[in-house]
Design a protein that fits this description.
Blueprint lengths: L3 H4 L13 H11 L3 E6 L2 E7 H7 L27 H11 L3 E6 L2 E7 H6 L4 H12 L7
Antiparallel strand pairs: 1-2, 3-4
Helix pairs in contact: 4-6
């Protein structure tokens, strides 16, 4: 059985709650990602997605907002020793596309659906997770 640490991305770009959403949007563009973990001194504080920026800032004509005004603070996390089946099930049940990985209170990586599909997890498990996530109208991260 594979563990998250075998498939997670460890070179994770982060931002702080005080960063501006325009800078984070540019980081998303440059890194070709749809979500950025929000950290302070290595500790995960939340997650900001491209959807958060559009719905909580741009649609309100507030492009000068700080990340803290748009980020999601409630999130599911995993640990490096969590098995990928458990991660896929958690992502499906919570309808999330990305799972931040925490060790001793610090962000050490992130697992996305594509990581599960490319790792040891079966195609059926990744497909199940995606189908469960795609059924939801609101996906947070």
């Amino acid at each position: 059985m594979s563990m998250i640490q075998e498939v997670m991305t460890t070179d994770v770009k982060t931002c702080t709650p005080d960063d501006h959403i325009v800078e984070v949007a540019q980081m998303m563009r440059d890194e070709n990602v749809g979500a950025i973990p929000v950290t302070e001194e290595g500790s995960l504080m939340g997650m900001i997605t491209d959807r958060d920026i559009v719905l909580r800032c741009v649609s309100n004509e507030n492009i000068t907002a700080a990340v803290r005004e748009a980020m999601s603070e409630q999130m599911e996390t995993g640990t490096p020793d969590m098995d990928v089946d458990e991660a896929a099930n958690k992502m499906a049940m919570r309808q999330i596309r990305r799972l931040p990985v925490i060790e001793q209170g610090k962000l050490v990586g992130i697992v996305a659906l594509k990581d599960l599909a490319e790792g040891q997890t079966t195609v059926d498990e990744a497909s199940f997770a995606l189908s469960e996530i795609s059924e939801s109208v609101e996906v947070h991260h």
